[in-house]
Write a structure and sequence with these properties.
90 residues; mainly beta; two-stranded antiparallel sheet; 4 strands; 21% strand
């Protein structure tokens, strides 16, 4: 029997200096190494066309008012035909 597992990830990352102050959407994607494009869909309703899975809002040099995303902004992963794989013919 398969049972869902959850993992906690803690860590820090550096935001490039070219990113200005403001509110941003934090999204996850698994990139196909051959083309460095998103190539996987997670089993979640949080989905943006192109293979990105939004997690929440984050602030850069700005306090956040509301960290949650509006579910009406999500796309339907079953209708997304943009994901593709790149053949690496090295």
């Amino acid at each position: 029997e398969l049972r869902p597992k959850s993992y906690k990830a803690d860590g820090t990352f550096q935001v490039p200096q070219t990113v200005g102050s403001g509110e941003y959407i934090l999204a996850l994607a698994i990139l196909d190494p051959a083309g460095m494009l998103p190539s996987t869909r997670f089993a979640t309703k949080n989905y943006f066309k192109g293979g990105r899975h939004p997690v929440g809002l984050v602030g850069v040099d700005k306090p956040m008012r509301e960290p949650t995303l509006d579910p009406a902004s999500f796309d339907d992963p079953a209708r997304d035909r943009t994901l593709q794989y790149v053949l690496d013919n090295r």
